[in-house]
Backbone:
């Protein structure tokens, strides 16, 4: 059994080794990286290794040791029907729940008649009479049953007999050095975690290490005495004192903690620890830039280096690329759907681009006197990689620091100077990009938006910072006199890029124009960056406009009205808020009590998350006290609706229009209910929200809530360090060390599912039908399922038998199966012979009506006598209603190792999300409706087609397993693996999908359309499909191309090859363009090789053989030589161990290497010849006489002996013979020629000859990894030896 690490590629055959690997390599567990269960099918995670050990011993020990049954202790309650396998403590917890309800509970111990309904009395009796005694429980209370488990395979039993100790696994001497280095790194990681995550001051860390070393030294006499005593007992004739001294020195010198934290250790001081961490961890250190000679400076974290560090992390890059693939075109689901992104020429391209979101704010790191003190007020600029999904962007460690400086420095020097290093890097990102090693290319990007509160946005963007100014809005040119007019009226002129640039220029020349335009200066970002502009770069903020702006003000206004009308009192409202049963996140966000002076302040105050909870829960808190029809209450409910809508993560045009109407209705009702209330500027900003959603997408993705949560980290650091000297640099360095710790982890984000506790229940406690399903799932149902057989009557002369593994669930599924099996090209209904009516025909409407071994009759539907024919009519006409667009069949990669389930339609995703939550919470089964299942199967079929047109059973099972892994609610309780029905449905769906492809003229499927039909030749009935993991077996013609245009390109290609020095670039380009035409000639027309060489001479050049193989298999043929490099020493070692006749022959081969200078190509040659000898399928001349292709070696006639067992190390040349002709020659070595021959077998669609089949299969499946899961016994045996 193989055990695989869930965080890296580590693989072992022992569970103990995997456990040690986790402790050594991933031992720095955090909330982001909890310890996973060692079993791949278990989703539990743990915060300590002890918890993992308990879990393994409790839930996986029986499965590991291969036992067939285990005893289960079941406790039964004497009061209720409770009966569950549990511990004694858990049972008494249940018993005490009855006592809390004053229910009389009898004592559960044997021979005791005590009963009580008083909690304390029962506990006192148990403590006094049964504490520490061995009195057994009553037989009706405690029972022991045997829970039968699956019998494990022989392989599992063998694995279980191995040493499975979780803690003690020996290391070889070769790994000790690496182990010491890793432990040193783990120790440094611990110090780093103490400083950054646990916020332990540096002086405290130093004090702890020094005291520990001192204690270690002082404890040496104790250890020495113990060692001396042991040696004296077991070793008589030795110098005890000398041996003890040597052992003590070795123990002391190899103590990892003492060695590296002692006086000369690498981690002994704060400076040494900082130096080690900077060198060994991915830490991007901040840079301090002076602003003047008075000590003012700005601290900047290089954004380009930080981007490289982030995108070098596999977890981050995968999620960034995955989010790109999830983009949809319908509605507004992210910023990619907004006009700001779509109008960005740099970002809105098919290539991967870096999208940045900035945030600017000021905060006070130490505010005992309030934020107005401003003594240590800092200005911070954060940024986030917007390519990540919003659920990942919201985590605080994903938010990065860019700039940190004193707020007074910004006021004195301006944003132009403070942001200079940041802007320079952003310009470089736009023009040249940043190199991403895993993508092997430079990726460009830019800033898409800047999140900030209104004051910060206006300050950085250059607008008026006073909202009492005449033009206070950054979205339009509304004046204070016109702010009572609605935005939807169209009376306010919106700001545009052109008008804003004009206003900035006019203000630059005449400062008095600022009051006419509301613009004071230009924005430094907009001035320097090509692809960023102020007008569509500063989105509104829900937090400050709604939750900390309009909501607390209007709540105060309406509460004042309710109190004045005596609906409620302030005390009753606060009491209702205090007693409300908050659950889930509301426990953290529960609102505070409303202050008594809210009348004077005109607002209830509070934080944004508290105000949101209060507004959302207000109908449940005080709604019963408010009479129906109260206008103030209606105003609040409209505001509540507005908040719920603007905080939505998905929008469409209808919802945006609905929001616009809600805003207008709320404004009108607010002014009617409170005529003396003056609207605030934020009321005007809110009216722009419908248009802002169209520009930026969902505004919840760009709000400032999570950014403001980042301030807490810096405040905590200042509180712990108590250092106010150059506080900005101190905070930046601490933050970057924290990021280095996170980036050093193999997992950057929290797991999607975290479970730390599991429980078991008795199977017999479930209803009978559930018990049956569970038994079937666990393999305890031994009755085999019979195949489902149907007799299909197409016509009186055409009656066919259909045998299926699984009975279709719906009539529609059966129709699809019958249509494909019988090759029916028309619509039809089905009738079945009903045994209840003497086998008379009845309409088939429900699969439950169909008996076993049923007979069904196909009834064609009447169609128009004049069917609509498309312009590209074929044998089968396709109406416009059945138009099917052939997906692109040009593939760039083979079948993925882990199949990624695509995103389904919005409705299906929503229902699946709800069902998943119900399944994970209550294990509630979900019955997938047919319309939903049809959408899922259709999307999966399209996704499968991107990799394989004819997927086998293993691949379909992998897709089905990936589906239930992503959506566990789709798990089938009645199948052994939980997805058998999905696998069968995918099988039938792919057949239906291929039928559509065939109707639409897809070449890869149409080539097999005549298989099995009457009147066709045996050759045409042969199925032509990828059999050797060809990715592009028979691709479609390129867009805007046909066979005539491609033939013209082929002629130009042939003419180019006639030149003395052909242009390699032109040849490569035209070979790429004509690939589909060439494959049609080779696969479909089966053109002879001699004709192909005449028509496609470039194909028979070494470079194009490599390129053609890459086009077909999406694999680099050079991997053949890399595999030879990797395996040659092992091959030689294996061949030397062979015995018998084969061993003698191999020894003759190997001796010929020893007699000469051993060069690499000679070793390659020997390995190839020995492989041909070892793996040959057949002996004798008959096998070689039927070879369709092979290699021809030409040697000098210098008198050297010639024989079957002699290796000619340096032949004159080697050539390739195909179909009796010399196709290519001039190769200097046999391995090179064999590599080209293997490539030609793909390029020319040649079957492996019988005498070389095993060798070529070994190259394909083992050395190149194409179809490695299916090996013959001989190849599998050699592979096992090779990898052992």
Residues:
């Amino acid at each position: 059994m193989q055990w695989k690490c869930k965080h890296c590629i580590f693989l072992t055959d022992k569970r103990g080794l995997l456990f040690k690997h986790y402790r050594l390599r991933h031992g720095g567990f955090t909330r982001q990286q909890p310890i996973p269960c060692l079993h791949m099918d278990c989703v539990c995670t743990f915060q300590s290794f002890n918890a993992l050990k308990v879990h393994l011993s409790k839930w996986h020990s029986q499965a590991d040791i291969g036992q067939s049954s285990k005893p289960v202790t079941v406790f039964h309650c004497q009061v209720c029907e409770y009966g569950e396998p549990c511990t004694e403590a858990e049972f008494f917890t249940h018993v005490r729940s009855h006592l809390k309800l004053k229910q009389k509970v009898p004592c559960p111990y044997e021979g005791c008649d005590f009963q009580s309904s008083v909690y304390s009395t029962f506990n006192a009796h148990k403590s006094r009479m049964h504490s520490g005694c061995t009195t057994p429980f009553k037989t009706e209370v405690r029972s022991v049953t045997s829970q039968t488990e699956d019998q494990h395979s022989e392989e599992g039993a063998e694995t279980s007999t191995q040493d499975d100790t979780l803690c003690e696994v020996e290391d070889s001497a070769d790994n000790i050095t690496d182990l010491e280095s890793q432990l040193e790194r783990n120790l440094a990681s611990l110090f780093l975690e103490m400083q950054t995550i646990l916020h332990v001051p540096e002086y405290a860390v130093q004090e702890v290490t020094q005291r520990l070393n001192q204690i270690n030294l002082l404890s040496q006499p104790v250890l020495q005495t113990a060692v001396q005593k042991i040696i004296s007992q077991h070793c008589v004739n030795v110098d005890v004192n000398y041996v003890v001294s040597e052992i003590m020195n070795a123990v002391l010198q190899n103590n990892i903690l003492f060695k590296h934290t002692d006086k000369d250790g690498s981690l002994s001081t704060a400076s040494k620890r900082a130096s080690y961490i900077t060198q060994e961890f991915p830490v991007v250190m901040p840079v301090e830039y002076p602003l003047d000679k008075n000590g003012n400076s700005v601290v900047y974290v290089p954004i380009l280096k930080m981007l490289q560090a982030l995108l070098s992390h596999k977890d981050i890059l995968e999620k960034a690329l995955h989010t790109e693939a999830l983009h949809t075109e319908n509605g507004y689901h992210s910023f990619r759907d907004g006009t700001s992104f779509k109008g960005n020429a740099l970002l809105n391209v098919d290539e991967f681009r870096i999208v940045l979101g900035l945030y600017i704010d000021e905060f006070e790191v130490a505010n005992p006197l309030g934020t107005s003190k401003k003594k240590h007020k800092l200005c911070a600029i954060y940024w986030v990689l917007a390519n990540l999904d919003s659920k990942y962007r919201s985590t605080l460690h994903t938010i990065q620091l860019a700039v940190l400086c004193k707020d007074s420095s910004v006021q004195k020097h301006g944003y132009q100077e403070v942001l200079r290093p940041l802007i320079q890097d952003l310009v470089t990102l736009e023009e040249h990009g940043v190199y991403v090693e895993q993508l092997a290319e430079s990726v460009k990007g830019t800033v898409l938006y800047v999140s900030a509160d209104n004051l910060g946005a206006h300050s950085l963007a250059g607008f008026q910072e006073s909202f009492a100014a005449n033009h206070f809005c950054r979205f339009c040119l509304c004046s204070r006199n016109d702010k009572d007019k609605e935005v939807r009226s169209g009376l306010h002129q919106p700001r545009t890029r052109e008008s804003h640039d004009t206003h900035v220029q006019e203000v630059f020349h005449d400062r008095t124009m600022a009051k006419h335009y509301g613009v004071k200066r230009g924005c430094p970002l907009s001035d320097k960056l090509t692809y960023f502009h102020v007008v569509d770069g500063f989105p509104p903020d829900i937090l400050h406009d709604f939750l900390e702006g309009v909501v607390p003000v209007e709540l105060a206004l309406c509460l004042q009205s309710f109190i004045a009308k005596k609906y409620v009192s302030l005390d009753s409202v606060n009491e209702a808020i205090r007693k409300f049963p908050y659950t889930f996140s509301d426990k953290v966000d529960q609102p505070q009590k409303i202050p008594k002076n809210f009348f004077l302040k005109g607002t209830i105050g509070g934080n944004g998350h508290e105000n949101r909870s209060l507004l959302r829960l207000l109908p449940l808190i005080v709604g019963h006290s408010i009479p129906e029809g109260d206008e103030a209450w209606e105003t609040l409910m409209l505001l509540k609706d507005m908040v719920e809508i603007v905080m939505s993560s998905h929008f469409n045009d209808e919802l945006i229009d609905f929001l616009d109407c809600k805003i207008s209705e709320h404004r009108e009702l607010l002014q009617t209910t409170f005529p003396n209330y003056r609207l605030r500027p934020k009321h005007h900003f809110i009216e722009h929200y419908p248009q802002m959603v169209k520009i930026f997408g969902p505004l919840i993705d760009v709000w400032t809530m999570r950014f403001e949560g980042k301030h807490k980290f810096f405040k905590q650091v200042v509180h712990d360090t108590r250092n106010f000297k150059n506080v900005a640099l101190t905070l930046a360095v601490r933050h970057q060390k924290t990021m280095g710790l996170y980036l050093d982890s193999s997992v950057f984000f929290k797991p999607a599912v975290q479970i730390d506790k599991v429980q078991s229940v008795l199977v017999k406690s479930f209803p009978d039908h559930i018990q049956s399903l569970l038994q079937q799932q666990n393999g305890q149902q031994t009755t085999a399922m019979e195949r489902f057989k149907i007799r299909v009557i197409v016509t009186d002369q055409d009656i066919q038998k259909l045998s299926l593994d699984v009975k279709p669930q719906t009539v529609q599924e059966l129709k699809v199966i019958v249509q494909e099996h019988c090759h029916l090209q028309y619509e039809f209904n089905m009738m079945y012979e009903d045994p209840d009516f003497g086998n008379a025909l009845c309409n088939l409407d429900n699969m439950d009506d169909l008996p076993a071994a049923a007979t069904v009759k196909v009834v064609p539907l009447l169609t128009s006598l004049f069917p609509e024919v498309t312009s590209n009519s074929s044998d089968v006409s396709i109406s416009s209603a059945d138009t099917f667009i052939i997906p692109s069949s040009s593939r760039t990669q083979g079948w993925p190792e882990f199949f990624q389930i695509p995103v389904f339609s919005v409705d299906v995703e929503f229902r699946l999300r709800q069902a998943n939550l119900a399944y994970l919470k209550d294990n509630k089964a979900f019955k997938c409706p047919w319309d939903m299942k049809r959408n899922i199967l259709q999307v999966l079929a399209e996704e499968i087609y991107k990799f394989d047109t004819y997927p086998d059973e293993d691949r379909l099972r992998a897709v089905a397993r990936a589906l239930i892994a992503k959506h566990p609610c789709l798990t089938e309780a009645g199948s052994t693996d939980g997805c058998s029905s999905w696998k069968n449905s995918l099988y039938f769906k792919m057949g239906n999908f291929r039928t559509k492809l065939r109707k639409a003229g897809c070449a890869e499927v149409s080539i097999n359309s005549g298989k099995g039909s009457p009147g066709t030749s045996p050759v045409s009935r042969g199925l032509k499909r990828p059999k050797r993991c060809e990715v592009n077996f028979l691709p479609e013609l390129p867009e805007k191309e046909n066979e005539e245009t491609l033939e013209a390109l082929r002629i130009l290609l042939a003419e180019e090859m006639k030149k003395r020095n052909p242009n390699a670039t032109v040849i490569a380009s035209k070979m790429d363009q004509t690939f589909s035409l060439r494959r049609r000639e080779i696969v479909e027309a089966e053109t002879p090789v001699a004709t192909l060489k005449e028509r496609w001479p470039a194909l028979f050049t070494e470079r194009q053989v490599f390129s053609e193989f890459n086009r077909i298999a999406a694999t680099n043929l050079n991997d053949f030589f890399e595999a030879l490099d990797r395996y040659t020493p092992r091959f030689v070692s294996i061949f030397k161990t062979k015995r018998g006749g084969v061993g003698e022959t191999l020894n003759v081969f190997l001796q010929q290497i020893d007699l000469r200078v051993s060069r690499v190509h000679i070793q390659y040659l020997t390995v190839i010849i020995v492989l041909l000898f070892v793996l040959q399928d057949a002996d004798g001349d008959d096998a070689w006489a039927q070879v369709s292709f092979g290699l021809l070696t030409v040697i000098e006639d210098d008198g050297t002996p010639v024989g079957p067992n002699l290796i000619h190390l340096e032949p004159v040349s080697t050539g390739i013979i195909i179909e009796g002709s010399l196709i290519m020659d001039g190769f200097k070595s046999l391995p090179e020629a064999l590599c080209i021959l293997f490539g030609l077998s793909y390029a020319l669609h040649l079957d492996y000859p019988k005498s070389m089949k095993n060798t070529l299969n070994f190259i394909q499946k083992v050395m190149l990894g194409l179809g490695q899961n299916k090996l013959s016994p001989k190849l599998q045996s050699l592979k096992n030896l090779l990898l052992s």
